[in-house]
From TrEMBL:
GO terms for cellular component: cytoplasm. Gene3D superfamilies: 6-phosphogluconate dehydrogenase C-terminal like domain, Chorismate mutase, NAD(P)-binding Rossmann-like Domain. This is T-protein. Keywords: Amino-acid biosynthesis, Aromatic amino acid biosynthesis, Cytoplasm, Isomerase, NAD, Oxidoreductase, Tyrosine biosynthesis.
Length: 379
């Protein structure tokens, strides 16, 4: 038997392979940078769903042929591609409307406003920012603007829009608010030109708009703001058209109810005052992920979430209905009615349909990733 530690020898070989992987990743990112430059020159979007799906399918098949788990390769490639999309941002983007005048972002120093200001600058536009202390100079800042984007807190959005009554008729007026009906109505009243409501369905901390969803609600003269829609599409986003009422109803569930539920759970936890370290140590992957999503909310701006939850009366009505159903289900537990529980369970399962199985698969991947991030301390 060799005097050398056989495990140590194997670890040296593994370290060598890991170094080769790093070299290959560096090579891939270098190629991606070149791809980004070509896409920028030709006005191609950084995210092409068909190309990504085809590439993933081929790599999965190749992995299978070599006895490598398909999901492993897909997980690695998707993480690498996420970094690749971020790298392509550095190459800039084609300017869809080179004849456009200045683009003014009202609230452009804020988190979301500054993100869009950076994206417009990366596309070669002349970008101006108008903040709350700049209104004395607003006429000069807004002069000649081809696009004005309002990115301010929800509760001040309509008030700010009401000030924009002197824009040129060919100027596009848009907003980035998570509520659409009220701001859209205000924009149509204040401005005679093209109007569109935008809602980016992501936070300002994203590193790329690839695969991100931007909802848009038509206001007026859609043919005149199509260059803006196309510009956002080139950034990699998926543009989803939705009438303002339908959008706002969906947001009552997607945002208001979800954020309020996280808020209520966080308040309950803090009042119960459990040992948070113990919860983390004993947590299953799914509970750790749930706790992370609740904790994420409390790491951010409370005024922002209060604004979202209280943005429209429909949100409160939705939350009240949820509270009522919550009470009804508590009564079911008090009665120890297993049959009723199963009946409710099956009814919801039927409503989800095929999505239930799809979500089961997606959640397994998320839970595996959350588990990978876990680090146990030696005891």
């Amino acid at each position: 038997m060799s005097d050398k530690d056989p495990l140590a020898e194997l670890r040296v070989q593994i370290d060598s392979v890991d170094q080769q992987l790093i070299d290959l990743f560096a090579q891939r990112l270098s190629l991606v940078k070149q791809v980004g430059e070509v896409k920028s020159q030709h006005g191609l979007p950084i995210y092409v769903p068909e190309r990504e799906a085809s590439m993933i399918a081929k790599r999965r098949a190749e992995a299978l042929s070599q006895g490598v788990p398909e999901q492993l390769i897909e997980d690695v490639l998707r993480r690498v591609m996420r970094e690749s999309y971020s790298s392509e941002n550095d190459s800039g983007f084609k300017q869809v409307n080179p004849d456009a005048g200045p683009i003014v972002v009202i609230g452009g120093a804020g988190q979301l406003g500054s993100l869009f200001a950076r994206m417009f600058k990366a596309s070669g536009y002349d970008v101006r920012v108008l903040e709350k202390d700049d209104w004395s100079n607003a006429e000069a800042i807004l002069a000649g603007a081809s696009l004005v984007v309002v990115s301010v807190p929800i509760h001040t959005t309509e008030e700010v829009i009401a000030k924009l009554t002197t824009l040129a008729d060919d100027c596009i007026l848009a907003d980035l608010t998570s509520v659409k009906a009220g701001p859209l109505k205000a924009m149509l009243q204040a401005h005679k030109g093209p109007v569109v409501g935008l809602h980016p369905m992501f936070g300002p901390d994203v590193t790329s708009l690839a695969k991100q969803v931007v909802v848009f609600s038509d206001g007026r003269a859609s043919e005149r703001y199509q260059w803006l829609i196309e510009q956002i599409r080139i950034w990699g986003a998926h543009l989803y058209p939705a009438p303002a009422p339908a959008h706002d109803h969906a947001m009552s569930l997607i945002q208001a109810l979800r954020h309020f539920t996280s808020f209520a759970y966080g308040v309950h936890l803090s009042n119960e005052a459990p040992n948070l370290d113990l919860l983390m140590d004993l947590s299953s992957p799914i509970y750790r992920l749930e706790l992370a999503m609740v904790g994420r909310l409390f790491a951010q701006n409370p005024e922002l979430y209060a604004d979202i939850i209280m943005a429209q009366p429909e949100n409160l009505a939705m939350i009240r209905r949820y509270h009522q159903r919550f009470g009804q289900l508590i009564e079911l537990l008090e009665q120890h009615d297993t049959q009723a529980f199963v009946a409710e369970f099956d009814k919801v399962k039927e409503w989800f349909g095929d999505y239930a199985q799809q979500f089961l698969i997606e959640s397994r991947n998320l839970l595996a990733q959350a588990h990978d991030q876990r680090h146990h301390q030696s005891r």
